[in-house]
Specification:
The protein is of the alpha+beta class and 184 residues long. The protein has a domain at 63-152. The chain is built from three helices and nine strands; from the N terminus they run ααββαβββββββ. The protein has helices spanning 3-12, 18-21, 71-81; strands spanning 24-28, 54-58, 86-87, 91-94, 97-100, 113-114, 120-123, 136-139, 155-158. The protein has a three-stranded antiparallel sheet, with no helix packed on it. A hairpin with a 2-residue loop joins β4 and β5. It is globular, with a radius of gyration of 21 Å. The two termini are 41 Å apart. This is Astrotactin-1/2 Fn3 domain-containing protein. One of its GO terms (biological process) is neuron cell-cell adhesion. InterPro entries: ASTN1_2_Fn3, Astrotactin. Residues 117-166 form the Astrotactin-1/2 Fn3 domain. Pfam families: ASTN1_2_fn3 (PF19743).
Length: 184
């Protein structure tokens, strides 16, 4: 099922509220050029390919666990995706709060905790996206203290040949996050 049809179906069955669906936008824009290896962008009589990417953009941040209906799964998902606060000094993360040592206390005597800076999530340069797969690269900006799972705004782009009779179809999309943890 195309993603937008999936959201519409949830709305019709009242499993998804209007404000969540209102956060989804579809826009068409010219965005650069396709790689030479991309067969979708080749057009007869034109030297330079002119792709018309379709951007499906979730413009409002929605916690992923809000889309899960099973209560047990929802609670497990919620605890995994809940934002954590981290110690400025050394300390342990307990649920969504940090327990800091004495060096992490501020002038007021309270724990000096602050959110960890977000890591960078970008397209992996070593693997070209296809119609069924896109590779993302996770780059940490600070040394690991425990672990953190965050919700991100995802953009889905589909390229199609540009001609008068072209019809753009949304293919089924599966988004999978794989967390690779260094055990050294």
């Amino acid at each position: 099922v195309p993603f937008i049809s999936y959201l519409s179906g949830l709305l019709k069955t009242q499993l998804l509220s209007d404000d969540l669906v209102a956060g989804v936008e579809i826009r068409c824009q010219e965005k650069g050029s396709c790689p030479a290896a991309c067969h979708l962008c080749r057009q007869a009589g034109r030297e330079t390919p002119s792709p018309t990417p379709v951007l499906l953009e979730v413009s409002r941040i929605v916690p992923l666990y809000s889309l899960v209906q099973d209560n047990v799964t929802k609670e497990a998902f919620k605890s995994a995706t809940m934002s954590s606060y981290w110690c400025a000094g050394k300390g342990d993360v307990i649920e969504n709060w940090c327990r800091c040592d004495l060096t992490a206390l501020g002038k007021d005597g309270l724990p000096n905790c602050s959110p960890l800076r977000r890591p960078v999530l970008r397209l992996a340069p070593h693997l070209e996206p296809s119609s069924t797969m896109v590779a993302l690269e996770w780059i940490d900006v600070e040394p690991l203290v425990g672990y953190k799972v965050s919700d991100y705004i995802i953009q889905h782009k589909i390229s199609s040949p540009k001609n008068e009779n072209s019809v753009i179809n949304y293919s089924p999309s599966l988004l999978t996050f794989v967390h690779l943890r260094n055990t050294d």
